[in-house]
Design goal:
With about 350 residues, the chain is an alpha/beta fold. The protein has two domains: about 150 residues, VC0802-like (2-Layer Sandwich); about 180 residues, 3-Layer(aba) Sandwich (Rossmann fold). It is built from eleven helices and 15 strands. An eight-stranded mixed beta sheet has the order 2-3-1-4-8-7-5-6. Strand 9, helix 8 and strand 10 form a beta-alpha-beta unit. Helix 1 packs across helix 7, helix 7 packs across helix 8 and helix 10 runs parallel beside helix 11. The longest helix has 14 residues. It is elongated and about 70 Å long. The two termini are about 40 Å apart. The protein binds S-adenosylmethionine.
């Protein structure tokens, strides 16, 4: 079977990269078919483990908004004939509504909602339209002239990302990244439930919260006691219990066990102090300090400003950069998200 994933379009690459990373690390058996920005089909997904896949995807994904079971791939010219081939009475639970979403398409959404609604009624028995509280939601995504028709299986709740913006947490300090990006970075690090994730520049704990919420064990450290304490307050507030925090200079880091992933946003610019280490030097020192604290197959996902060249630094320590994404912050700052791992022998 096929799943239709509707994603955020707030970044051209990160939503797809996040989905790919989760599919990979959770061993989800599916072919990823990106249709366009904001729309991906998971093909040949095994039906057998579907409930578990739904649970994982709902719990983890930040930039994916809706997941539907794909019923039909058609286009504007063929919709009438193709809609007649679907066994609507078997798929729809008593009543339904059709909702159309356009991605780079100028079709008349209301017109197509009515049109497909009528076609469904004409090709089924004992089902009705219910626009206010439908048991079954039929989702159409229109892209150019193509139409992808699915039935909603899961809607991912994005309220958490609104409610946990840095200024809404009990401990606030400037410089914490938005929670959706933090969640995406945790996912890019390929960590799994129950594994240990470290943020050695944890600040207010934004990354640790996102990792804790998907079921990871988390450890955070920061050079300042005030930050360590603030991160603990925030983790408690979000109900995360499996955590440890320390206050420690990253150069002194010696973990009690090797970690399965490191996700972090090192200090740069004026809003965060580097604890007396000069500008780019902190990145070098960090790579040296972190290497021996990571398992051999662990991933590191980190943010950095565009003007810091990480390549020679990671080479020197024995890491490889495997993926990079650019996020334009303002005219003079682009943030780079890098996924890094130890060089394979
Ligand atoms: C960009 S902030 C991290 C923000 C964090 N992701 C959050 O959610 O609040 C960088 C953090 O690194 C800490 N820091 C600076 N120099 C450090 C050092 N040498 N070792 C450890 N932490 C350091 C700062 O105190 C600051 O909290």
């Amino acid at each position: 079977m096929e799943l239709l994933c509707i994603q955020s379009q707030e970044h051209p690459e990160l939503p797809l990269a996040e989905l790919k990373a989760v599919i990979e690390c959770e061993n989800i058996d599916a072919e990823i078919d990106p249709i366009t920005e904001g729309l991906v089909i998971l093909r040949d997904i095994s039906k057998q483990n579907l409930d578990e896949y739904y649970r994982i995807l709902t719990k983890r994904l930040g930039y994916t908004h809706e997941i539907h079971e794909l019923l039909l791939e058609t286009n504007v010219g063929n919709m009438d004939g193709d809609a007649a081939t679907v066994a609507w009475s078997e798929i729809i639970d008593k009543n339904f509504a059709v909702r159309v979403k356009r991605i780079r398409s100028d079709i008349d959404t209301v017109g197509y909602e009515r049109k497909l609604g009528t076609l469904i009624l004409d090709n089924s028995q004992n089902i009705k339209v219910n626009l206010s509280k439908p048991n079954s939601l039929i989702r159409v995504v229109a892209h150019d002239d193509d139409l992808y028709v699915g039935i909603e299986r899961i809607r991912l709740d994005k309220k958490h990302f609104e409610d946990s913006k840095p200024h809404k947490r009990p401990f606030f300090y400037p410089g914490s990244m938005n929670p959706k990006l933090a969640r995406c970075m945790v996912n890019l690090s390929r960590i799994k439930e129950g594994e240990l994730l470290l943020d050695p520049f944890c600040g207010t704990g934004g990354i640790l919260i996102e990792a804790g919420l998907i079921g990871c064990k988390v450890v955070g450290s920061d050079i300042y006691w005030k930050m360590q304490n603030g991160a603990s307050i925030n983790l408690d507030y979000y109900g995360i219990t499996d955590y440890r925090t320390f206050h420690l200079d990253v150069r002194e880091l010696k973990m009690y066990e090797k970690v399965a992933s490191v996700v972090t946003d090192p200090p740069y610019g004026i809003s965060t102090s580097t604890g007396d280490v000069d500008g780019e030097e902190i990145f070098k020192e960090f790579f040296h300090a972190i290497y021996d604290n990571m398992k051999d197959d662990a991933y590191l996902c980190m943010a950095s400003p565009h003007y810091v060249d990480l390549k020679p630094m990671v080479d020197e320590v024995g890491f490889d950069i495997v993926e990079q994404y650019r996020i334009k912050m303002h005219r003079s700052l682009t943030r780079i998200i890098s996924v890094i791992r130890k060089k394979l022998d």
